[in-house]
Amino acid sequence: MLGLQLPDGPLRLACLGAHCDDVPIGAGATILRLLAEHPGSTVDWLVLCSDPTRADEEREAAAAFCADAASVEVRVESLPENVLPSISADVQALCAETARAGTHDLVIAPCPHDLHQDHRLLAEVAAQKWRDHPIWGYEIPKWDGDLRTPNLYVRLDDATAARKLDLLGRLYPSQHDRQWYDREVFSATLRLRGVEANHRWAEGFHARKTAV
Ligand SMILES: [Zn+2]
User: Fold this and answer.
1) pLDDT at 208
2) What domains does the chain contain, in order, with CATH numbers?
3) How many angstroms does the Cα of residue 8 sit away from the middle of ligand 1?
4) How far is ligand 1, taken at its centre, from the CA of residue 151, in Å?
5) pLDDT in tens, 94-137
């Protein structure tokens, strides 16, 4: 069980992404593990930027990664990419609506130090709207090179790591020609964080504060 900050029974998760594919890349295997270990959990999945093609991909991905959930509420918005800091009021409003949807046991969001401005703004707003909730900030490998050593690791068994990699290989076909979107990048990140977690596979997160 992923105790520490989380109750033993069903969880209510909030999964937040600036863009389609952010949540599965950063935290897909953790979501698979959490939902398998906490039957009956529910998920509120919010993505801010999309176009119609990418929105369809994201809905399919959310359903696949949350297959073990009792229910998942997916909201894929169509805010413009790369300019979220200039429309932060819209981001505030969307996050506030999701935060009001229920009392979340865990919020999965981008890292505050992420160098993509959209990710960083969402991390900031998440900390404001879920200010007394545990928030795990996920990692997104990218050209900017902003990965830091995490302070929270979720260990993963072989099957869960493989399921994440297989799903990412099948989902998001619109992204498959991007030079950073391939199984090697996703696998290497899981393996590196696994080394740091004294395990084979892991996802790393940045949690600002822990209280038990
Ligand atoms: Zn992104």
Assistant:
1) 82
2) 12-207 (3.40.50.10320)
3) 31
4) 21
5) 999 999 988 999 999 999 999 999 999 999 999 999 998 999 99
